[in-house]
Amino acid sequence: MKYISTRDAQARPVGFTDILLGGLAPDGGLYLPQEYPQIDAATLEAWRTVLAEEGYAALAARVIGLFIDDIPQADLAAMTARAYSTPKFATEAIVPVTDLEDGIKLAHLSDGPTAAFKDMAMQLLGELFEYVLAHRGESINILGATSGDTGSSAEYAMRGRDGIRVFMLTPAGRMSPFQQAQMFGLDDPNIFNIALDGVFDDCQDVVKAVSGDADFKAEYRIGAVNSINWARLMAQIVYYVSSWLRAAEPAAASAADQAQSAGAEAPAGQPQRVSFCVPTGNFGDVCAGHIARQMGLPIDRLIVATNENDVLDEFFRTGAYRVRGAAETQATSSPSMDISKASNFERFVFDLLGRDAARCADLFGAHVPAGGFDLADDPAFAQVGTDYGFASGASTHADRLATIKSCWFSAGVLIDPHTADGVKVARDFRAQHPDAAPIVCLETALPVKFADTIREAIGTQPPADTVPERFRDVLNAPRHVTDLPDDVDTVKNFIRQAID
Ligand SMILES: *Cc1c(COP(=O)(O)O)cnc(C)c1O
Questions:
Q1: Global pTM exceeds 0.90
Q2: DSSP annotation of 368
Q3: Would you say 73 and 61 are in contact if contact means Cβ atoms under 8 Å apart?
């Protein structure tokens, strides 16, 4: 399996381990497989047995093995076994699927160490980074900025690993108490928490300035783990497969009653189709669903759910991709979806435009920096909902509160505000398409991380039995964090001293 860039079809394709540690392709594009491996009904039924008898980690090794041919399969299996294990994850199933209400299920992606779905990718990334660095005799110093979920997920994935240090900038005093406690509670010699005297954008500017100094970057081997990393997407494909297997009937058992249960779209004898509704920010999570669907996983619809920052809902409704400025980007109660542009969206548009790299380079290299583009009159846009199965919807603060409340009081299920955006949009979709395939909503965080919004919705803090044991004392742990001024040279000096 070789990888190409969304912006240059002529460049020589590169291997998985060559793109693992980097970010963007040299031309500014994003990496994608040269072609998507195909899975058929027989493979899916074989994987059903793998999942049932050997578990999620074994399934993960099979799925990612389709995308990696420069790491031996046995080594991949050892890595997935370590990444997707208890007690790192709360359940043996790793990603359980449960019923929420008629026609809507929940896939639980936030049972990992930091209670957010980003652990699903980061835990594997930690294994892959350590493995490839050891084989190359190299080391890396990961520098990042975070306002919440990504930073803590990266730290928990990289703590204690050989050849890896993490320097994570956070805006001083601006994260939720839970998020601060979770990150600053880590006491590992390779993890460096820095509370910068500024807001999140200041943190990001410092990261850009430090990484933009080519000499410093090379001398101190500065790297990143951002959301456009291909391996993160790849790891996310696995839970679409496992959730499909857990939500769909086995082929033989379902053949008889398919006509009724899945509508006219699933002819008898064909695997049952399932839809996914995905709370979306940078389009990473749902992009993995797009790739799974392109591989042949029987996904009916991919429903994109946004909050008030609805740049993607607008695209899927109208064809206009209109990126927002900072002033137009709202701070909402589902903060991990507060984006002005979606960093992974280019991957989908590349496929939509028949993998036309020259057009992609023009749209994302020239038009997006100037405000966006409009595909409404492009024949390709007509395929978005048909050939590519996409639908979308948006949710508001009031919708989130109402959805959290109704799930809690009618089903006894407490969901977080991001997951609530997804459930709200899934319910709307079902109301408009009552005969549609069952929808699996992806749960992206646990409610304990967003206790204030939960209290606003149900009138009390998340009840004790909805807070996993391992998080009960998180607020009392000693803090490990260095306060620094908003100054690039001071941050560089801090990194130098930590490494030398
Ligand atoms: C990151 C995140 C999202 C958005 O995921 P994308 O891959 O950026 O679309 C949604 N919910 C939570 C809780 C997150 O941490």
A1: yes
A2: G
A3: yes
Query: In terms of C-beta density within 10 A (0-12 exposed, 13-18 middle, 19 or more buried), how is residue 40 classed?
Result: exposed
pLDDT digits (tens, 9 = 90+) for 247-283: 998 766 554 444 444 444 455 567 899 999 999 999 9
Using CA atoms, how far apart are residues 499 and 165, in angstroms rounded to an integer?
Answer: 9
Average pLDDT over residues 160-180: 90
179 pocket-lining for ligand 1 (C-beta < 6 Å): no
Q: How far is CA 155 from CA 68, 79, 126, in A?
A: 25, 18, 9
485, burial (CB in 10 Å: exposed 0-12, middle 13-18, buried 19+): exposed
Ligand 1 site, residue 271, Cβ cutoff 6 A? no
* Residue whose pair of structure tokens reads 């050891």 in the numeric block: 134
What is the C-alpha separation between 292 and 240, in angstroms, rounded?
Answer: 7
Q: Give the Cα separation of 327 and 329 in Å (integer).
A: 6
Distances (CA, A) of 450 to 91, 391, 422: 22, 27, 16
Active site residues: 118
313 and 304 Cβ atoms separated by less than 8 Å: yes
Give the Cα separation of 39 and 54 in Å (integer).
Answer: 19
Cα separation, 207 vs 418, whole angstroms? 27
The CB of 288 under 6 Å from ligand 1? The reply is no
Longest CA–CA separation in the chain, Å = 68
What's the 252 CA to ligand 1 centre distance in angstroms?
36
In the 8-state DSSP scheme, what is residue 36? Answer: P
Closest CA to 236 of 193, 183, 286: 286
Contact indicator for 490, 202 with CB cutoff of 8 Å = no
Ligand 1 centroid vs 101 CA: distance in angstroms?
23
Q: Is the CB of 283 under 6 A from ligand 1?
A: yes
Q: Distance from the CA of 220 to the center of ligand 1, in angstroms?
A: 30
Ligand 1 atom closest to the CA of 285, numbered from 1: 7
Q: Which amino acid is at 355?
A: R
